Amino acid sequence: MRLRNIRGSREAIAESSYIIHEEESRAGTWKEIFGNDHPLYIEIGMGKGKFIMELARRNPQNNYVGIEKYSSVLIRALEKMEQEEAPLSNLYFVRMDAEAIVKVFAPGEVQGIYLNFSDPWPKDRHAKRRLTSPEFLRRYDQILAPEGRIEFKTDNRALFDFSLESVKEVGWKLDAVTCDLHRDEALNAGNIMTEYEERFSAQGNPIHKMVISR
Ligand SMILES: C[S@@+](CC[C@H](N)C(=O)[O-])C[C@H]1O[C@@H](n2cnc3c(N)ncnc32)[C@H](O)[C@@H]1O
């Protein structure tokens, strides 16, 4: 996924109307950006954008922001947006490192956060970089609405167990959990498969999911 040097990706992103630039000056202005006050949901580490595009298509009553760190990956999502028959007016993308998330959204501005197949960062010394680390949960705490929720999916058991520990450490609630999403009728209802989810479940890996809130 980390093809950092796709030719022209930075330029294409700079010119695209689907991308919100100067994101650190946007906290508190997302209603103005979308032109309505619909609830705002974000996906962090969206990759090529398959999941959040389908979510936005199915839920025109909500607003969505897809966040991705690398231009070379984001460009694939842009290409998909350009192929849409009817443009998705309820979805924008931001190219940024999620470490700066509290500068981009105001306190309580985000109704929900999706984390799908986040990078596992297997070395202990990189644990803080995991998107479900206590450090990241504390950042999400600052931008989530009081009733806001986080949904996290992964096939990586070690990352899932680490995330369960993080939830405990910050004192959040586990609203739902499964270690085999595709066989869990209730949690799998309406599930949108991500690119990684398709790939890993085709290899026979069970998909883990948790839904958490404060
Ligand atoms: C393993 S891929 C999963 C992609 C997609 N969510 C899926 O399930 O198919 C993880 C993605 O998260 C992005 N990512 C990792 N750390 C990030 C961060 N700190 N901020 C923003 N994006 C990040 C990576 O660049 C990569 O595209």
Major beta-sheet overview: 7 strands, mixed
Q: Could you tell me the CATH topology label.
A: Rossmann fold
Kindly state the number of beta strands: 7
Q: Give the name of the CATH architecture.
A: 3-Layer(aba) Sandwich
CATH superfamily: Vaccinia Virus protein VP39
| Largest beta sheet: strand ordering | 3-2-1-4-5-7-6
Distance between the termini: 32 Å
Q: Count the helices. How many? A: 9
> Helix amount, in percent?
25-40%
Low-confidence stretches: none
Name the beta content range.
Answer: 15-25%
- The rough form would be described as globular
CATH class membership = Alpha Beta
Summarize the topology.
Blueprint: H1 9-15, H2 30-34, E1 40-44, H3 50-58, E2 63-68, H4 71-83, E3 91-95, H5 101-104, E4 110-116, H6 134-143, E5 144-154, H7 157-170, E6 173-178, H8 185-188, H9 195-202, E7 208-213
Parallel strand pairs: 1-2, 1-4, 2-3, 4-5
Antiparallel strand pairs: 5-7, 6-7
Helix pairs in contact: 1-4
The protein binds S-adenosylmethionine (SAM).
S-adenosylmethionine binds next to strand 2 and helix 9.
Task: Give structural notes.
By secondary structure, this protein is an alpha/beta fold. It has one domain (9-213): Rossmann fold (3-Layer(aba) Sandwich), CATH 3.40.50. 35% of the residues lie in helices and 21% in strands. Strands 3-2-1-4-5-7-6 form a seven-stranded mixed beta sheet, with helices on both faces. α1 (9-15) packs across α4. It is globular, with a radius of gyration of 17 Å. The protein starts with 8 loop residues before the first helix and ends with a strand.
